[in-house]
């Protein structure tokens, strides 16, 4: 019945300080030893998540940049989808970027428009770091994700401008209320999860998945056994009224639920 596990990171598998507890790591290691495939599905950069996976001590498929990149446990890239370069170049201009911390996710690089210490703190578990670049003059090539960070009211204005300019030619979502994330239109965690399951010869109906943000919508809406965190975004909860909620990420609730489902204790 439960043959594969997929989980988001921030607000879900990771604690409040954006690191994984020893209890969570031990739980995942035990499940992996039983032959259960693990999939990490997150908006974070691949290089960042690769470090988090190492800290967890597991071999997992990595769905990163909300599905714009997929890597297998041996770090082989099995899927990549970029935003059209011309669109990226346009999104880097002041019409969209002013008033926000702007980030670009490429295969091996994380570019930002300006220094931001708290972003580095979020990534301390992996050691991955950004490079400050002249984003308005970036050529737009090889970009899997554009991330705007600002207060929700300002991001709502950027989101409206993006829809007005590009319609549904982009996949636009939120990982956190202050993180507006943009990918190519065919990208989502749900689509990426299907790619991984096809490779593993497994099915959505047998997948257990956990998430808390709007970028988890497509994943939780398609798996057979979805779970929302107790700290999930209220908009996501409203969109998935039949999905059960578990405890909060700060209480290692994913690990506790997995121990219950797989009868580890």
From TrEMBL:
Its cofactor is Mg(2+). It comes from the Bacteria. One of its GO terms (molecular function) is hydrolase activity. InterPro entries: Cof (IPR000150), HAD-like_sf (IPR036412), HAD-SF_hydro_IIB (IPR006379), HAD_sf (IPR023214). Keywords: Hydrolase, Magnesium, Metal-binding. Pfam families: Hydrolase_3. Belongs to the HAD-like hydrolase superfamily. Cof family. This is Cof-type HAD-IIB family hydrolase.
């Amino acid at each position: 019945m439960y043959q594969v596990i997929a989980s988001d990171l921030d607000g879900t598998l990771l604690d409040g300080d954006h690191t994984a507890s020893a209890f969570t790591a031990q739980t995942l290691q035990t499940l992996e030893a039983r032959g259960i495939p693990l999939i990490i599905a997150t908006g974070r950069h691949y290089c960042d998540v690769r470090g988090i996976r190492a800290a967890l001590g597991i071999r997992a498929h990595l769905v990163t940049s909300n599905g714009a990149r997929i890597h297998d446990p041996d770090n082989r890239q099995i899927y990549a989808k970029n935003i059209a370069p011309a669109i990226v170049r346009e999104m880097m201009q002041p019409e969209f970027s002013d008033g926000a911390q702007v980030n670009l996710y490429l295969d091996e690089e994380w570019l930002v428009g300006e220094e931001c210490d708290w972003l580095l703190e979020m990534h301390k578990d992996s050691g991955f770091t950004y490079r400050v670049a002249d984003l308005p003059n970036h050529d737009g090539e090889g970009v899997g994700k554009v991330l705007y960070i600002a207060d929700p009211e300002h991001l709502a204005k950027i989101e409206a401008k993006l829809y007005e300019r590009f319609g549904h030619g982009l996949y636009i979502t939120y990982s956190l209320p202050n993180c507006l994330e943009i990918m190519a239109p065919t990208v989502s965690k749900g689509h990426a999860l299907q790619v991984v399951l096809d490779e593993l010869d497994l099915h959505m109906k047998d997948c257990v998945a956990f998430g808390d943000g709007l970028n988890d919508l497509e994943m939780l809406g398609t798996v057979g056994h979805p779970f929302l965190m107790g700290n999930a975004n209220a908009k996501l909860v409203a969109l998935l009224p039949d999905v059960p909620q578990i405890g909060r990420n700060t209480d290692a609730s994913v690990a506790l639920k997995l121990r219950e489902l797989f009868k580890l204790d």
